[in-house]
Amino acid sequence: MAMLEIEHLNTYYGHIHALRDVSITVEKGEIVTMIGANGAGKSTMLKTTSGLLRPRTGTIQLEGEELTRLAPHTIVTKGVVQVPEGRRIFGQLTVMENLDMGAFTCRDGGRIQKNLDRVFDLFPRLKERSKQVAGTLSGGEQQMLAMGRALMAEPRLLLLDEPSMGLAPVLVDSIFDTISRLNNAGTTILLVEQNARMALQVASRGYVLQTGQIVLSDSAENLASNEMVRRAYLGE
Amino acid sequence: MTRARSIWQHGVKTGIIGGVAVLIIALVGMVQSFNKRDIIFEVVAMGHTLLVITAVLMGYVAAKRTPRDDGLIQYVNTIVCSLITSGFLALLVVVGRSVNLRAVLVNASPVLYKALTLGFDGAAGILIILLFGVICGSVAALLYYLPPVVRRVTIISLSAMIGAGVLQELIRPVLLSWGPMAVIADYFYTSNGLTIAGAVTIVVFIAAGMTVWTLRGESIKSHYSHLSGGSQRGIKIGSFVALAFVLIVLPHVLGLFLSEVLTIVGLYVLLGLGLNIVVGYAGMLDLGYVAFFAIGSYVTAVLTSPELGFYSLTFWQALPFAVVLGILSGVLLGIPVLKMRGDYLAIATLGFGEIIRILVISDFLRPWLGGAQGIKAIPKASVFGFALAQPQYIYYLILAGCILVVFISLRLKDSRMGRAWMAMREDEDVAQAMGINLVSTKLLAFATGAGFSALSGAIFASKLGSVYPHSFSVFISINIICLIIVGGMGSIPGVIVGAAALVGLPELLREFADFRLLVYGAALVAMMLLRPEGLWPEVRHKIELHEDENGSGQPEDLSAAEPASQPQGG
Fold first, then answer.
1. H helices then E strands: how many in chain B?
2. Least confident span in A90-99, A154-163, B286-295, B542-551
3. Which of B17, B221, B368, B431 has the highest count of CB atoms within 10 angstroms of its CB?
4. Same structural domain for residues B174 and B124?
5. Positive or negative, the Cα torsion across B221, B226, B227, B230?
6. Which of A16, A22, A92 to mutate to test the interface with B (most CBs of B within 10 A)?
7. ∠ CA(A151), CA(A155), CA(A161), 5° rounding?
8. What confidence score (pLDDT) does residue B193 get?
């Protein structure tokens, strides 16, 4: 059974039909990416999965368990955690307080400590800055913090929304490196990206979203060599 | 030419602002009516003091704004500023003497000119005004060049002296009423203003105290931190007992009027702490907060007043109903506005507040709520058969309420719910993505705030003995918001300080009733410009508001400048 199984999803913003009959699957242990232009519906897709938006029709299942129409906070407790677009860390709290906030659903002090060690292991930089006010971190560090905060909620499926947005190229590399490491450590990841080149390098499979519809779905390698993808998203 | 302009511009600009300020002070009549009172008997009058303070303040600002490269330029700028400030007054006198301005400006009378020129006629009077300008400028420059510690000591001790002079009508009767203290009262005060000896004593005493603390404070603090845990606890308990003792005897020392003021401040502290949970903790701007105050009052009134004759419960029996109904109505208001944020929430809650007020005043509900006539004959709360009728005793009831509410606020702040509120205030979407249930979190904030407000309302009803619809206007809500903002959003001591400053001070300065609201408004504007984080801020808000000054946020890449709110799509 697939980790995440989304079928015939239709989401609207008022009258605007933002997602048209989208069906995807994410298998356990995979990195699956969705690429597409601005406004193609990538973020809408993630927000619908995490419950921030309600689909009009369609189903979302996590290992056979129905997630459709559950409240966002319940979906978090099921193990689906989203790192929002633009990071959106709590700028006035310290790094530590941000991470603590990520562990909101977890009431077991021992487990929180274990997760914290894991996050600090992945991002030693955050440990150095744990007492610093998060708003004063650099963009790259803020992205690390946003991911660390999500990891504190013990995700089985991590939804990443444009993690490379606005970062310097060298930082983009390190973020994607972290994504691979997270995945190797067992976290399943659904990655939404405009940076198709990097996304297709780390992912095993990918979907191409155009005006709310899936127009292509294939392995990452095939997509990277697909003529249409190369022209439209890889700028070749 | 441009060079010259850049040298003088700060002095000229600040001087014009100061000039307009003193002109307004003079023309609204503050100088004349304040001059009836002396700060120091027959030496310093209050109206003059106000003008001098304004001129010195503006001079100081001019010095501070001038770039630091040349001391002399700063000094000259300060003098320019004060000269311009006093020049406005001189011009007023010159114009006023030749043209009758009174048709338009009622207060521009010969009495005012006489006060401004200190009684000198002709050119001498004008020169006196300008001379005062120069003196004020020099004082400002002197203050500016003093080492910060000395400046602080000087300003605070002088302010204390002026404060003692302004509040003489309040302090003197308290001292006089207290047998042996009458001697002290006679030493410090005349029937109008401080004695010279008294004024000097206050300045010297405060300056000496502050100097000692500045010199020795650090060593006292470090001495304290080196004490063993046991004696530290001992000192803590000791100071706690001392505080409790002061709070308990306070109303009896202060007498009737000041106790009354204390009870009003206390009610606003209760209200402020409640709204602080909604606005300060959870970040939801609620402008209809007075509704819960009204509900608490009316529930108590309906249940206890024999005038309506439904029930004749005692205050204590009615109190739980008032609080529970307040909480329920908080939830009831919360449900329809769950999806609203910011301005929309403010408007919707404003509507709720008005609905309650209009319901209460309506003829439709008159048989139950008394309509515009309100409800009278509400019995006082009593403890063991002793009725809490006097302000001095109602004070204890309010004090108990405040202690309870402060305690609950403190506990909530550090709780899981407090963290959820904080996350929600910062970013609702992310809070949800962290697994926070927005519905219950919001409703709990509304409910808690409403509960505190209803408690305050119940006490208010029993304190006054009657309730009228017009006591529950939207201005109460706005006042509470103001006191929270002035005190410092989300800060518990901030609410107390804010209530004392915005509710207590105006009551104490009733004497100057004509100008109360003018000063209140000006103070609010100045406060928001100079200290937007509040008088006693939460650490976090201070960080937020002074971010740019500390030069924090060192972007390693361009993205640090990215806005927090994201456009949808993707």
1. 25, 4
2. B542-551
3. B431
4. no
5. positive
6. A92
7. 75
8. 86
Both B346 and B419 in a single domain? yes
* B93 and B1 together in one domain: yes
Q: Is residue B281 one of the residues assigned to a domain? A: yes
User: Is there a contact between A140 and B436 if contact means CB atoms under 8 Å apart?
Assistant: no
- Are A88 and B432 an interchain contact pair (Cβ–Cβ within 8 Å)? no
Q: Which of A71, A84, A141 sits opposite B430 (nearest CB)?
A: A84
d(CA B5, CA B2): 5
Interface test with B, best of A35, A73, A161 (most B CBs within 10 A): A73
* B261 plus B397 within the same structural domain: yes
Mutation site, B557, B558, B565, interface A, largest A CB count within 10 A? B557
d(CA B413, CA B432): 19
Q: How confident is the model at residue A216 (pLDDT cuts 50, 70, 90)?
A: very high
The string of pLDDT tens digits covering residues B249-258 is 888 888 888 8
Any CB–CB contact under 8 A between B43 and chain A?
no
Among the candidates B454, B473, B492, a domain finishes at B473
User: Per the CB < 8 Å rule, is A43 touching B570?
Assistant: yes
**Residue B33 lies inside a defined structural domain of this protein:** yes
- Please tell me if residue A73 touches chain B, with a CB cutoff of 8 Å: yes
Residue A114 has pLDDT above 80, yes or no: yes
> What's residue A126's pLDDT?
92
Same domain membership, residue B96 and residue B165: no
- Number of residue pairs across A and B with CB atoms under 8 Å? 127
Q: Domain ends where: B191, B226, B261?
A: B226
The three state secondary structure string of B20-59 is: HHHHHHHHCCHHHHHHCCEEECCCEEHHHHHHHHHHHHHH
Which pLDDT score, from 0 to 100, does residue A223 have? 92
Q: Which residues of B touch A150 (CB under 8 A)?
A: 433
Q: Is residue B304 part of a domain?
A: yes
- Tokens 């000006």, located at residue: B522
pTM, to two decimals? 0.85
Residues B194 and B136 in one domain: no
Domain count, chain B: 3
- Among the residue ranges A24-38, A63-77, B99-113, the one predicted with the least confidence is B99-113
Q: Please, which contacts does B517-522 make with residues 24 or more away whose CB atoms are closer than 8 Å?
A: B518/B28
Q: Are B129 and B158 members of one domain?
A: no
Compare all CA atoms of chain B with the CA of A106 and give the residue at the minimum distance.
B435
What digits encode the pLDDT tens for the residues B34-59? 888 888 888 888 889 999 999 999 99
The Cα-based distances of B56 to A118, B52, B132, B149, B414 in angstroms read 59, 6, 10, 18, 44
Residue B432 maps to a domain = yes
A48 touches chain B (CB under 8 A): no
Residue of chain A minimizing CA distance to B429: A52
> How high is the mean pLDDT of chain B?
86
The 10 Å Cβ neighbour count of residue A61 is 17
Residue B166 is part of which domain span?
149-226
Chain A nearest-CA distance from B562, in A, is 8
B104 and B163 together in one domain: no
The whole-angstrom distance between residue B15's C-alpha and the CA centroid of its chain comes to 28
pLDDT category at B390 given cuts 50, 70, 90 is confident
Cβ–Cβ contact B33 with A under 8 A: no
Q: Which among B429, B437, B557 has the least Cβ separation from residue A166?
A: B557
